[in-house]
């Protein structure tokens, strides 16, 4: 029997190599990783004082910092199909259907899914498909004609994928070759494009997204996004390094971020941010304190390091850092927060049909970063959407505020998220986020004498414990905003005579595989853990039969489609 490489190991290697590739292509990405590393190091210094016993070596920090999400944009359904088969070899399945064609001012002619592992996802890729039928016939024909002449998946990649499907995996040399197909061809940036006239015409008509996809020879990564332990620390640091704010302003932002973190970084925060860390180890940390002076010292030390090593030389060109962070306000730990340095203007050589070349530029690849929080229930999502809509409407009335007075902007933005509670316990008690529950030794010892089945009461009395489920997916509105801001073009209006309606089924047919609905997965993980908790506490018999049935149905669904296992298998760790 041949020895196959584990698909999850292949996934880690693919993303490590994509990260190295992207760093070579884009030096600013590498610098942003270094800035993030310095920020995270200083966060760990603070956490070490706040949680007596916590420490993290540089090596451990590096190991926990490998998580990435990428974004690629595909032009043809058959290419999209191959992308699905490619990622399946890395234990990544399509999760959720995103339709950005109907988001008002932020609409793009794109449908998408995100590939990730169902269980304990490490990396993800947001894969978009350009819907050429949302354009008028003439535009559509030109885009499709150009797309028809490119081949991103070469014979070698297809052969390896077919072999892996046949065998059920790949041996080491083939696995390495499949990863190389990704880093050397499929996701590699090439500064070579085609048909400058079409490029200009598409851009001028407001179809930049189509130009970005159709005129290039590969599915280059648009961005590759690392995680940060503290978004506001990182954005302050990056704005300083890019020369957008002076040292005094930077110090103020960095100190503010650390002061907030001192309050926010409780045990639940630790569980959320260090998902590989042993639960018992986190519970065993003692309560420490961090004085204002110590925070000042940590902030000063970070600024010194940035000044010495990371400030971008004046002559290196960039397009600046965004002024506002996408997602919830800094004090609202739901979904995810994302920010970015703006898309770089890169030299591109267009090859024309007559063999001549045109030197031009293209602006699309940008430098995103994110911080992930708790997964919302449908009720939580509705409340979040309402808050976001109000916040965006208010901010639109004074778009210059964030630049003029960042603190005032933050306060105004946060005020619209006030209806959402700020701690995990409150979020759970209001049914706004999903948790994973388990019985404590104290609870198991009290088995027989416990009478309540109220989960929150069980947690309050120490009979059960809970952690929040981390949000592992994307947000349609943020995603659309990301397209718009990095293309610097809001809203692409469909020009087709009859506006098509796109369905999940359509994308599933293109992929030839089902798309996982992650809401059912989060709910299933919750239900499975609650049932196990009741069972261990001897309370199953007290749960109303219809409630129990519903939970059992959710838990069963959560196993997911064949070949996948739900996130909840984690509960067994
Ligand atoms: C993908 C946009 C979606 C995110 O973080 O929401 C995305 C793209 O720009 O191609 O990456
Ligand atoms: Ni992204």
> Structural class of the secondary elements?
alpha+beta
**Main pleated sheet:** 5 strands, mixed
The number of distinct β-strands equals: 14
Please give the oligomerization state of what you see.
Answer: single chain
Structural features, described:
- The chain is of the alpha+beta class and 573 residues long.
- Helix content is 49%, strand content 13%.
- The protein has 24 helices and 14 strands.
- The chain has helices at 7-25, 27-50, 58-64, 77-88, 137-148, 155-167, 172-186, 196-204, 208-214, 231-241, 247-264, 267-273, 279-284, 292-309, 378-396, 401-404, 406-415, 424-429, 441-445, 455-460, 476-487, 504-511, 518-536, 545-557; strands at 51-52, 68-74, 93-99, 110-116, 124-130, 192-194, 223-226, 286-287, 336-341, 345-351, 357-363, 367-372, 435-439, 464-468.
- The strands form five sheets. A five-stranded mixed sheet has the order 3-4-5-2-7.
- Residues 561-573 have low confidence and may be disordered.
- Bound molecules: 2-oxoadipic acid (OOG) and nickel (II) ion.
- Nickel (II) ion binds at residues 69, 71, 126, 223, 225, 368, 482.
Compile the SSE list and pairings.
Layout: H1 7-25, H2 27-50, E1 51-52, H3 58-64, E2 68-74, H4 77-88, E3 93-99, E4 110-116, E5 124-130, H5 137-148, H6 155-167, H7 172-186, E6 192-194, H8 196-204, H9 208-214, E7 223-226, H10 231-241, H11 247-264, H12 267-273, H13 279-284, E8 286-287, H14 292-309, E9 336-341, E10 345-351, E11 357-363, E12 367-372, H15 378-396, H16 401-404, H17 406-415, H18 424-429, E13 435-439, H19 441-445, H20 455-460, E14 464-468, H21 476-487, H22 504-511, H23 518-536, H24 545-557
Parallel strand pairs: 2-5, 6-10
Antiparallel strand pairs: 1-8, 2-7, 3-4, 4-5, 9-12, 10-11, 13-14
